[in-house]
Each structure stands twice: as C-alpha cells, then as structure tokens.
Queue: 2 jobs
Job 1
Amino acid sequence: MRVVNAAWQEWLSINVARGCTPGSLIDAMVQAGFADDDARVAVHHAFDRRPADPATTATVADPVTQPYRYDPMPVARGNLICADERDVRVLLRCERPQLVVFADLLSAGECTELIERSRHRLKRSTTVDPLTGNEDVIRNRTSEGVWYRRGEDELIARVERRIASLTNWPLENGEGLQVLHYDVSGEYSPHFDYFPPDQPGGAVHTAQGGQRVATLIIYLNDVADGGETVFPAAGLSVAARAGGAVYFRYMNGQRQLDPLTLHGGARVLAGDKWIMTRWMRERAYG
Ligand code: PD2
Ligand code: ZN
C-alpha cells in the first residue's frame, strides 16, 4: 500500500495552489496506486492546509468590530417585477438581513408539476459535515429531496431563466435546483447556507464556484400549519404560500458573510411542505 510521503504532500500543495479540483487530485492519486480512502483523506487535508489569502478569504462579519456592509440589492425596485415575461409581486423588503419576499414567482400549474415530477424521486436530505465536507444524513434536517441538473428540461430551464432575471444573478452561478419535501413534524434547524470559512470541510465545496452568496426558497404548496422559514437573529418568519418565495443575500463584494441570515425551516404542524431551493455562488458553478 502506498503512503503519502513528503514528496506527495508537496505535490498536493502545489496542485491545490494551482486551483486543481479535489476530484481530479483524488483520481490522479488512485491512478498512481493509492487506496481510494487514503487519497480522499490526503486531498482533504491538503485543502485544509491551504494558506489563507487575506485578499480572498471570506470572513463572518462581527456586529461590533466589523459590521456587515450591505451592497445595493440587485433585485429591481418596485412592487411588480417583470422577470423573463412573468410578473412577480414584491410583498416585503428587509435591509438587515438583506431579504425580499415575493408572490406569484411560479404559477399554480408550475408548482403542481414540480411536486408531481419530484414525488417519486425523493431521497433523504443531507447536510455538509463542517469538518470533513462529507454530505451526511442528520436528525436536524428531516426532509427528502431531489436535485435537478441545470437546464435539465424545458420547465427547469424556464424557471432558472426567471430566477436569474428576478435576482439579477447569473444563471451559471446557480447550483442545480433542489425540490424538498417535509412531512408533518419535519423541520430544518437554524443554520447558515454559506460554508463557514473557519471550518475545514467547506474548502472542498468552495473549490468550485467559490462561496455561496444568496439563497432563493420557493414554496410549492400552502402549508396548513407551521413550516415557516424563520430568521431567528432578525425576528422574522415567512409563511409558505404556493408560488411565493423568499430571497436573501449573505455575502457582499468584500467577501464578508452576514450572520443575520441564520435561518431554519420551522416544524410542519399540519399537512406537508414542498419547496424548491436555489443556492447561488459567487462564480460560475458546475
Ligand atoms: O424549508 C425551509 O424553509 C428552509 C429553511 C432553511 C430551507 C432551507 N433552509 C434551505 O434549503 O437552505
Ligand atoms: Zn438554508
């Protein structure tokens, strides 16, 4: 069995600094005779050891010493926004955290179709382990989900164009759309959607596309009771109404991250809940 000696450590450091992806380095090591698990551990450690570049490292803002500076919201002004030929209503705008609530982003027919085509493809949702970067099934996220590839079909492509137009954020910077389903008593504990910069596992995920900068959560059904998206640090909650959405931004041009965007999915008290999530990156993704 091969061991990761000093020469291989150096090879890893050089290639991480050159911007190689974790996957390509793991493949190269496996080809060179390393066991798959050993290659993965060595590559993840190499990303964790990567020296922080103060010019490019994201930092979580501190309300006292380094308050978050809000860039202008890229969503158009006004009460009605025409997004790729659909009129979307604005219900609420909040400046701190930077957040907009919409109605009518999707039609009733689009919501139903997205639910029906997802129903049979659901898998238990995962979250990113902050230490390893692995996707783990954990108790504080009791939903099931399905990912759609960007531009997977006509409906997905249309929704993606509409989202890009509404949010003024490039379509290529979006992760694939994800449809999620929560049964009664399902919930998602409060968390940040950005990858915490001080936790090594995030480096694996930011290697492609950089940090997450914003999230759009679209509600596909009316929830009979509970299931709001809650922002505990802001004292705000958004009720799930079919076709509506909440959009919030958490990284500015100086790469500060906004801790006021802590958010969760409240427990579903009656009925079930369907949403579609778009996580957006700072650069092209995928
Ligand atoms: O289901 C929600 O309301 C919810 C809450 C928090 C979804 C997400 N986060 C997410 O998809 O990131
Ligand atoms: Zn979230």
Note: The longest helix spans residues 36-49.
Job 2
Amino acid sequence: MSLAKQRKVWTFALLFCSITFTTILFSYTFRDPSLYIFKHAFQLSDSFFSKGPCACRQCIAELEGDPWFAERFNQSIHPLMTRENSILPEETFRWWQWLQAERQPANFSEVVEELFQVIPDEVLYTDASPDRCRTCAVVGNSGNLKGSHYGSLIDSSDFIIRMNQAPRSGFEEDVGTKTTHHVMYPESAIDLDNTTSLVLIPFKTLDLQWIISALTTGTIKQTYVPVMPTIKANKNKVLIYNPAFLKYVYESWLESRGRYPSTGFLSLQFAIHICDEVSVFGFGADQYGNWHHYWEDNHLAGAFRHTGVHDGDYEYNVTLLLADKHKIQMFKGR
Ligand code: C5P
C-alpha cells in the first residue's frame, strides 16, 4: 500500500473513532435514549457509563445532594399490597385500624386471603434501572385545570394517574383522554374502562371486603355512607395501596399532620415511588382555600380542607417543596 493510501486509511479510522466516541459521550451526557444503541453495539458496561439511577433527564431516586429528600424517601416499603407484605407490624395495624375505626371488623388476614383469590398477587413496578425512564402524570381534581389546555401534555406521559370522581368526558382538552391508574376508596368510587388499573386505598377492613364484593357478588351496599354495590373494572388490574406505605407517607412526608393523607397526596407519593419523572396537575385550592373541582361549581363546599381530616396546607407546601427541588414538575393551571 502506498504511503498516501496508508495515510488515508489512518485518517479515516481516526475520524471514525472520534465520531463514535463523541456520540457515545453525547448520548450519556444528554441521556438521549435514541442514541443508546451505541451502548449495546459496543457492549460497554453500564457501570462505566451510568450517570444516575434512571435514563430520564432527572431521576427522582437520585438522592445525592438533597438531604431533605434523602431523609424522607424510602424505597424499602412497597406502595402496593401483596400477600407477603400484608402481614403488618402490630403498631402499623393498630394505627391503620384507627383511621376509620369499625365496631366489629372482620378478620384482616382472612379477608386478605379472599382478596387475593379475586385479584392478582403480583409485585409490580420494581423495575427501576439506569435504562428506564418512566414518566408519570398525577392529575388531581382542582378547578385550576379548567381552561388549562393541559390535555395533550397529560396524555404524553407513560402513566396517567387520576383519582376519586375525576371525569374525562367533556373535559378532554384540559385533563386529557387517557388513564392508566385510577386511585379511589369505596366512598369515592366510579366505574372504569378495561385498560385502567383501579388502585384502592383501604382505610378499614370493610374497604377490602367492599372491593371483593363490588367485583363479585355485589352484597356490600353501605359503609359509613351508601357505596356502589358493583363496579366496572378489570379484576386483573386491581391494585391495593399498602397500609404500611400509607403510614410511611403520613409520618415521613407529612410529619403526622392531619388525621391521614388525602387521596391526592397518596397518589403523588405512589407516583414518586414507582416513576422516574413526575408531572403534577390539578393541585391547589381556590382563593378561599376550598378544594374546588374542575367539573363542578363547589367553591363553597369547603371539601376536606377545613374539616381537619387532611392538612391541605401542609400537603400543598410539601408538594411545592418537591417542585422547588426539581423532584416533580408542577403545572398550576389557571
Ligand atoms: O376533591 P378530591 O378529594 O376528589 O380531590 C382529589 C385530590 O386532588 C385531593 O386529595 C387534593 O390532593 C387534590 N385537590 C387539590 N385542590 C383542589 C381539589 C383537589 O389539591 N382544589
């Protein structure tokens, strides 16, 4: 090979190497998943390139640099109930039973056993990895969603978590069209479509009996108020909020303010523990401090904010702090 030809080959090889190297560096610096192909093509180890616990631009589980967050965030308590984690420490069980005390509660472990014969007993969402970027939208019920035009932004998330009575029909432009998870308790239940996961927050043993009944015989019609005897929901997608996680949220995140956390705050914490990036919509009281809704004119209702069951102000301040610390992104609407 002539000297000139050899030089050309070397120049080409050098150019090729530097372009490849720059691209890999760029892909990991900006965490662009479309460029991750290079990692696999060259079989380069994760530990060498890994920059954080997830593949998003910012990862919730990144604990370095924020002692306030690191002190509170605990991934060892799973947000959802399984047969295995349903055996609660005595103190946790007593705390949970006190939330909505029942005069003659049924046997908890027998009810749990019956429950997992109706719904699946699975450990879900424990797949966090440097390659995963799961984006989630938590949609509260605030009237600040009215006229917000957030619909398509909400729909662009992987998980879309709604709660309680939240309707979509007629409000799509502001709240979106998709729901992957709908969080509720018996007294706030609504029918769902087949693709949505019903996430039940149990505040008493009767709530677990209710979901069994609502998915099968329809015999339970009343708790402390009349409830839906049957519910339209995909049995195979029903999930149960873990009472131990509920206590953790109350104590670690709310410093035991109020009687127990609101559906909105529990949904937000659920998202923070199973997602890598969380966007929050529909949180915020009206100018008088009421928890108004986007679908009705309930400005004077007062909702829970003034009843003492939840400490709405404290919850909102923690939520704002999470946003200040770039752990969540908050969309405040109008
Ligand atoms: O009214 P509801 O309890 O169904 O609302 C669901 C959640 O949305 C609440 O638990 C609260 O966290 C949040 N919310 C809010 N501001 C409102 C209405 C609701 O932050 N105006």
Note: DSSP finds twelve helices and seven strands in the chain.
